[in-house]
Design goal:
Layout (H helix, E strand, L loop, with lengths): L5 E6 L2 H12 L2 E5 L4 E6 L3 E7 L18 E5 L5 H10 L6 E4 L5 E6 L5 E5 L8
Parallel strand pairs: 1-4, 5-8
Antiparallel strand pairs: 2-3, 3-4, 6-7, 7-8
């Protein structure tokens, strides 16, 4: 195993969420699965699935779903942290917390439109990062 290939978030409105992730992070649409899901490319190496809550339960293969707020962290370079803070402000996105960790990394926490907790993390947050 070399890395996590895909992660999934379950949302009420797929198109609204896709627009949010494209606008805020610049992710590109990799595949469009109709009203059920959209695959967004993350730096050309990973996939963020935006899934319609409850739309995959009746499928025979790969049935999955999720409820409640989830958490995802995106790695950023330390020198880009001020630009990200400014960009989130321009987008009208409130930063819930800015945390500096013992190893020296910093995390910015904020929410998407479905209440999922998103994190932008600089090196030093974890021993492996």
């Amino acid at each position: 195993m070399t890395r996590i290939l895909e992660s999934a978030l379950y949302v009420e409105d797929v198109e609204r969420s896709v627009e949010f992730y494209r606008r805020v992070f610049g992710f590109e649409i990799s595949d469009w699965g109709g009203s059920r899901l959209v695959a967004l490319g993350v730096e050309g190496r990973q996939v963020l699935l935006i899934c319609k809550r409850g739309a995959s339960l009746g499928l025979p293969v790969g049935a999955h779903d999720g409820e409640g707020p989830l958490h995802l962290a995106f790695a950023i370079d330390a020198e880009t942290l001020p630009a990200w803070e400014a960009w989130l402000g321009i987008q009208g996105i409130a930063i819930e917390e800015k945390k500096t960790w013992e190893r020296g990394g910093t995390s910015l926490y904020f929410r998407d439109l479905d209440g999922h907790l998103l994190e932008l993390a600089t090196p030093g947050v974890w021993s492996i990062y």
